[in-house]
Amino acid sequence: MQKQFNKGETVSFSAEEEQLFRLIGKAAGEKGMLCYLIGGFVRDKLLGRPTKDADIVCNGDGIALAEQVARKFTPSPKVNFFRNFGTAQISVAGMDIEFVGARKESYRNDSRKPAVSPGTLEEDQNRRDFTINALAVSLNAAGFGKLSDPFNGLDDLEQQLIRTPLDPAQTFSDDPLRMMRAIRFSAQLHFRIEERTFEGIRREAERIRIVSQERITDELNKIMLSPQPSIGLDLLFKSGLLDIIFPQMTALAGVETIDGKGHKDNFYHTLQVIDNISRETPDLWLRWAALLHDIAKPVTKHFEKGHGWTFHGHEVVGGRMVPRIFKQLKLPQNEKMRLVKKLVELHLRPISLSRENITDSAMRRLLFDAGDDIDALMMLCEADITSKNKIKVRRYLENFELVRQRLRAVEEKDRIRNWQPPITGEMIMEEFGLPPCKKVGDLKNAIREAILDGLIGNNYEEAHAFMLAKARELDLVPIK
Predict the structure, then answer these.
(1) Domain definitions of the chain by residue range
(2) Model pTM?
(3) Hey, what CATH topology would domain 15-155 get?
(4) Cα separation of 172 and 165, whole Å?
(5) How far is residue 284's CA from residue 290's CA, in Å, rounded to a whole number?
(6) pLDDT at 4
(7) Distances (CA, A) of 144 to 18, 98, 102, 139, 360
């Protein structure tokens, strides 16, 4: 529901916030400065969104103001300052507060690092990215709480609109990351990007190439963590930004038809899957698994005469693509990447298990391969159901629930999840007097496969007997 704002709008602070902001205003007065609360804190307070990060701008030395504020607390909070940027940060009363002197900026075409010089509040507001982030509230005693709104940001809050204060071409050329921030705010707040502003993003999209990958990926992750990530991802696609920052994703888009047979648009299918899983979990890496689950479909796509389109092996190829994509996007090369890779590789397995006459052996193998990530895998599989046919969706979900029940029953009986065979490689080497070699691996694998196939029980006695029988086939004799 849209919120109504009045021109005489004041920001409503909690008692603790008002006490803190009046103290900051008093410190500024002692330094002979004007100071204002500006940007995201003001916006979010007006929208009724929780926020604990505040930006303070003053017409003077921001570091000196931070130090003056810190002296008013016992014990004094540490002042973290960045002399080159003229900024300082303190954490007090459960809030992170950043101080900076009002400034004006100018940019070169080949860099997003501005030449900065002292400026007025008005000049500082001019350099802000969007009108809704240019709102400022006076903290000085004389005008405490007075709202400054030079670009009609209140109207844009009311209209749920993202708009640049100055000409979009200038705003985005000055700092190209603002293009991704516009899309991120649209996704987070569910706001519409003004047509002229969005056209500015389309025209300036190539400028994103001068921004570091880390900054781009940070914005991309924030879009992925928004309540409905498809909003931001679709805007990235339509603006042309996605093809520059993540071309493998745009390769999913479109439908090809041969002999009257077409495949679904895998880009928009993927967006549906991300939204589906986002309703179930805030976990960033499960959302990335949803984003990448079909990433290899463009490179595995094949038309078979009389049959139609196939994407054979896309889960295997997709799994191989995950580490490269994570490296490309400067995402972590750790267990988070390995989780996404595993889920992409396994995302088709539960579908095959939803058919009738599936053996316990197949269930054991999935439990063994998925381990503790089996619940995440099932969540991804359920999110992958995007049919508009509600009857078909219900049938798939009911089938997956039966798979869950079978998995629980097999796990309770066999304890296969995160299981290791009861006979280790070291035990085999000791039994037969072998060094590390292929025969040791062959025996260990044979024991594991026999247990997973249900040929022997998951216990030492049966595994040991099986090992001895298998060893005879390999002409191995125990040394004991």
Answers:
(1) 15-155, 349-414, 425-473
(2) 0.83
(3) Beta Polymerase; domain 2 (3.30.460)
(4) 11
(5) 10
(6) 56
(7) 10, 19, 18, 5, 70
